[in-house]
């Protein structure tokens, strides 16, 4: 991480004081235990950061890109309808404790929303957020970020660099945190925090913990020549067998994926017609109606829809954006009611090709 501006070490108490300091000026949205799972929630009295969480159900990127938002509102007047500007909320927020897979997930999502075509609504929401990352040491059964290079510790990935992904990065060193800042916003967030410069032992401890975290993975994805492998196998029988035999078109996989961006536009009309709103809501390529166009449906089978999801993440995205559309978080397979696993599908296709 050559672009780091500075690094310090803060005790657990200093870190807690820092969070309290941040809460005075920002809404701090952090991973909080909610029953058996952990979700990003605004920190309020009595809520504590879950420092050891594995994965949240809804990813950090979808804290910014919400399931539903109003784009335009029309209000009835004596003369007809008047368009009213919908000004997105301007509350300053910090997305706190984001794991590296989700930091990259946000950057991947932003290749769509803030790339060639700028989405004004997303840009306006995103401008309210600063991000504090947290290197991950709690590797879940379905996690495979190490295979795609997005974790468990934050580093450069397929042309992306840490300074764009987060403003501050924390590493739990056991009883103390290594706090690295990137860019002016990171330095500003740390202003007023009492912390000491890291010693060579602190840096060594970070490296030791990173190596130990990498040893904990139980799942992997073989990425050798993966985009072309899938392109060559668009007619592989697994699409039909898995798609038609197991996929329920429930759309869970796309709802929890940090990089899925598809949306639909609806008109919401009040019963008394006084207000009409144009809203956008998340959509899913796994929904049968997604590909309905005048005169037909170009992806009417579950086979075709599942192939689209897997090949988009692991093949087409690379062709379009130069990076995978999958950051290895494991959410889609965790929340798939029938356990459909894109890494297993890719492995099955590879094994069949190698047998030939
Ligand atoms: S495709 Fe699945 S594993 Fe990959 S980023 Fe999306 S939810 Fe995570
Ligand atoms: S979560 Fe599983 S069953 Fe539901 S749409 Fe996705 S692949 Fe199909």
Strand content: 15-25%
Global outline: flat
The total count of helices amounts to 14
Q: Numbering strands along the chain, what is their spatial order in the largest sheet? A: 1-9-8-7-6-2-3
Main sheet characteristics? 7 strands, mixed
Radius of gyration: 22 Å
Query: Strand pairing plus helix content: what structural class?
Result: alpha+beta
The separation of the N and C termini measures 43 Å
Task: Please tell me about this protein's structure.
Helix content is 37%, strand content 21%. It has 356 residues and is α+β, with helices and mostly antiparallel strands. The protein has 2 domains: 192 residues, no CATH class; 111 residues, no CATH class. The strands form 3 sheets. The chain has a 7-stranded mixed β-sheet, sandwiched between helices. Strands 5-4-11-10 form a 4-stranded antiparallel β-sheet, with no helix packed on it. β8 and β9 form a beta hairpin. It starts with 5 loop residues before the first strand and ends with a helix. The model has no long low-confidence stretch (mean pLDDT 93). The chain binds iron/sulfur cluster (SF4) (2 copies).
List keywords for this structure.
alpha+beta; four-stranded antiparallel sheet; 14 helices; flat; binds iron/sulfur cluster
């Amino acid at each position: 991480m050559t672009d780091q501006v500075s690094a310090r070490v803060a005790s657990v108490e200093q870190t807690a004081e820092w969070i309290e300091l941040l809460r005075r000026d920002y809404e701090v949205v952090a991973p909080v235990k909610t029953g058996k799972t952990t979700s990003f929630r605004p920190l309020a009295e009595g809520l504590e950061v879950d420092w050891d969480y594995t994965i949240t159900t809804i990813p950090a990127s979808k804290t910014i890109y919400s399931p539903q938002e109003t784009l335009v509102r029309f209000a009835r007047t004596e003369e007809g309808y008047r368009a009213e500007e919908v000004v997105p909320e301007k509350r300053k927020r910090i997305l706190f404790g984001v794991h590296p897979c989700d930091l990259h997930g946000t950057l991947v999502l932003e290749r769509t929303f803030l790339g060639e075509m700028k989405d004004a609504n997303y840009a306006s929401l995103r401008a309210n957020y600063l991000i504090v990352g947290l290197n991950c040491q709690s590797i879940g059964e379905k996690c495979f970020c190490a295979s795609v290079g997005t974790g468990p510790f934050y580093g450069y990935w397929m042309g992306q660099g840490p300074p764009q992904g987060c403003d501050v990065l924390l590493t739990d060193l056991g009883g103390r945190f290594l706090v690295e800042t990137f860019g002016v916003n990171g330095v500003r967030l740390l202003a007023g925090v009492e912390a000491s410069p890291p010693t060579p032992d602190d840096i060594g401890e970070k490296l030791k913990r990173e190596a130990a975290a990498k040893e904990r993975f139980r799942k992997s994805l073989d990425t050798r020549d993966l985009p072309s492998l899938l392109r060559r196998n668009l007619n592989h029988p697994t699409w039909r067998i898995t798609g038609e035999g197991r996929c329920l078109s429930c759309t869970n996989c796309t709802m929890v994926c940090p990089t899925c961006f598809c949306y639909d536009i609806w008109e919401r009309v009040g019963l008394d017609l006084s207000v009409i709103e144009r809203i956008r809501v998340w959509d899913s390529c796994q929904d049968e109606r997604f590909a309905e166009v005048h005169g037909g449906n170009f992806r009417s089978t579950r086979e075709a829809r599942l192939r689209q999801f897997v090949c988009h993440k692991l093949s087409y995205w690379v062709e379009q954006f130069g990076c995978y559309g999958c950051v290895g978080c494991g959410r889609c397979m965790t929340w798939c009611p029938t356990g459909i696993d894109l890494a297993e599908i890719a492995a099955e296709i590879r094994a069949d090709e190698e047998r030939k």
